[in-house]
Request: fold
Amino acid sequence: MQQTFHEANRDLIVNVAGKLLHRDEAGVSPFDSVVQGGDAVWEGLRVYGGRIFRLARHLQRLRHSAQALAFAEIPDDQAIRLEIRRTLEANGMHDDVHIRLTLTRGVKITSGMDPRLNRSGPTLIVLAEHKPPVYGSEPIRLVTSSVRRFPPDCLDPKIHHANLLQSILAKIEANAAGVDDALMLDQRGFVAETNATHVFVVADGGVSTSHTHACPEGVTRDVVLSICREHDIPHDVRDFSLAELYRADEAFCTGTMGELVPIAEVDGRRIGRGECGPVTATLRARFREVVEREAEEI
Reply:
């Protein structure tokens, strides 16, 4: 799976620190913390019919991540909502839109990693693009990466930070293998997530996903678990191994960028029938119902 350029994005207006600029003119200072050390937090949002799904939850996770990194200043939700609305209006965007929301620690007075060098900030960046769900509707193929996900005592995955080198290295391996994405294990060898999404397995009608010991607290992941509770679908959160994934009846990934997408193959092994299974299909339909019901006016 390779994303291609969307012609509608040629003249995007990007919001950097409240300034609305053409994509070719927008930029951040070389002294900004995101340039100096990837010192920033981020969220991905999707716009459905002029509404954003689970915006409050995404903003909460952004705030929690910024607090964990001891940002001196964090804009309130109302201020962020305003900048999102200004950006969408400037681009005339209404549907099938992905927003990359980034909050950096701000601009330093000189280069260096010490947060005490930050004398202005934070910097809020709102990048909205015309972009359908990244995987489409077809099942995807994965390969297990050699790169392991960190546990909390190395770098807590509950901090949704912008330093994505682990994921990028895993994605490079997936590209080299000619598959869509990389499956990533934790340091004990259990499935954590992919380089971009959470992983679910289905066996004997029951749905399982991994703990968040070595992966973020996914917003779409939480929606799927709540759907299972609401509709009495057997489910649990537990450690599971590659062997359990290989022999699963179905498997799928979840994320804001791709919603719910079935997994056809892992490491050259077909999962189930290699297609979207009945449980996955049901959950995808229920997910769309939740989006329709709960997406927030912006």
Q: What stands out?
A: The first strand starts at residue 13 and ends at 16.
